[in-house]
Design a protein that fits this description.
- The protein has about 375 residues and is of the alpha+beta class.
- It has two domains: about 40-260, Rossmann fold (3-Layer(aba) Sandwich); about 275-380, Topoisomerase I, Chain A, domain 4 (Orthogonal Bundle), CATH 1.10.132.130.
- It is about 35% helix and about 10% strand.
- It has eleven helices and ten strands.
- The strands form three sheets. A four-stranded mixed sheet has the order 1-5-6-9. A three-stranded antiparallel sheet has the order 2-3-4.
- Keywords: Hydrolase, Protease, Signal, Thiol protease.
- It comes from Prunus armeniaca (Apricot).
- One of its GO terms (molecular function) is cysteine-type endopeptidase activity.
- InterPro entries: AE (IPR043577), Legum_prodom (IPR048501), Legumain_prodom_sf (IPR046427), Peptidase_C13 (IPR001096).
Length: about 375
């Protein structure tokens, strides 16, 4: 985990992390193998993630040295959450995790016969694009994603919403999909009796059907036969007694939610409102809010101008490819165009990641690195 929450100066409960309004501390006792520490901010990277999954200690940089040292009889459960967009998921440091690279790592793990079965839960915007058209159904991996390949995921338990976090919080406590599956695994459920298919159905309904009628489509990929497996066989059990009875109750519909791309804006807005009038904290929060709004306007303008320079007024580079087809044919081109933009125009940021589909469609339309450099330099120099 990227250990930057519990003791953050903006955490109203130092040393404590909650993920629901009346929830317990979920930080205490959690092992932190690749945590954020002052001297080693570059440990939480895509390269380290791949090394950990593959059990490759020699490829690690920093951290505890722990890897997924699994064997052919082991079941593996992976849960990953960050900002994301078409074909990528974010990392706190360094390059993005690209869909083809992640799936290639999973294929290598399978070829090495270092697991029996694997379940992968992924939370991010457009998270389905990480597996759509890429994850085979014959490598014993079952995956579910917070959203399909083309839609955003949502934050929930946000300040000012119902239900919301306790007083003093200026951030949402969780993501709609993640909250839904975690609460489905709560103490009222017997993980020895519930299957992944049952959890998928419960999470799918709750993630799509909020009280506001918003939400995303939780999607399944890979070997769907594994959905018949019991949660217990991957997650362990929350009770070892034989007197445990299965509850038929389901968590209630969640209330107000917010598009993940706008969660930062909500945070900055609430900080500026809540800080004492005339204080340095209020001034700082307003500056952060202004900088974020300006950043978004700049990114919108940059991408629009590059698109116009390459294709003219009639271009529509946000088109979706048919379902079951991966985002892009040439992943090397896709990475090159994303990196070229960031080299000349600056980081996409969590907000600007939404434009990666535009870059993918540029590749699908035959845009070369040279043309992208020319358009980027003309736009951003």
């Amino acid at each position: 985990m990227y250990d930057d929450i519990a003791f953050n100066v903006q955490n109203p409960r130092p040393g404590v992390i909650i993920n629901k309004p009346d929830g317990p501390d979920v930080y205490e006792g959690v092992p932190k193998c690749y945590e954020l520490i002052r001297l080693y901010r570059n440990h939480v990277t895509a390269a380290n993630l791949y090394a950990v999954i593959l059990g490759n200690k020699t490829a690690l940089t920093g951290g505890s040295g722990k890897v997924l040292d699994s064997g052919p009889n082991d079941n593996i459960f992976i849960y990953y959450t960050d900002h994301g967009a078409a074909g990528i998921i974010g990392m706190p440091e360094g390059d993005y995790v690209y869909a083809n690279d992640l799936v290639d790592v999973l294929k290598q793990k399978h070829e090495a016969k270092s697991y029996k079965d694997m379940v992968f839960y992924l939370e991010s915007c457009e998270s389905g694009s990480m597996f759509e058209g890429l994850l085979p159904n014959n490598i014993s991996i079952y995956a579910t994603t917070a959203a399909n390949a083309t839609e955003n995921s949502w934050g929930t338990y946000c300040p000012g919403f119902n239900p919301g976090p306790p007083a003093g919080y200026t951030t949402c406590l969780g993501d709609l999909y993640s909250i839904s599956w975690m609460e489905d695994c709560s103490d009222i459920k017997d993980l020895r009796k519930e299957t992944f298919e049952q959890q998928y159905e419960a999470v799918r309904k709750r993630t799509r059907n909020t009280t506001e009628g918003l939400g995303s489509h939780v999607t399944q990929y890979g070997n769907l036969n594994q959905a018949n497996d019991l949660l217990f066989s991957y997650m362990g059990s929350n009770d070892n007694s034989t007197s445990y009875t299965q509850s038929e109750s389901s968590p209630s519909l969640l209330g107000s939610i917010i598009n993940q791309h706008d969660a930062d804006l909500l945070h900055f807005l609430l900080r500026s409102r809540n800080a004492p009038i005339g204080s340095d904290e209020r001034h700082e929060a307003r500056e952060e809010l202004r900088a974020e709004v300006d950043r978004r306007k700049r990114i919108d303008g940059n991408v629009d101008k590059i698109r116009w320079l390459l294709f003219g007024h009639e271009s529509n580079l946000k088109n979706f490819r048919p379902q079951s087809q991966s985002l892009v044919d040439d992943w090397s081109c896709f990475k090159t165009l994303v990196r070229t933009y960031e080299k000349y125009c600056g980081s996409l940021s969590n907000y600007g990641m939404q434009y990666t589909r535009v870059f993918a469609n540029m590749c699908n339309a035959g845009v070369t690195k040279e043309r992208m450099i020319a358009a980027s330099t003309q736009t951003c120099s």
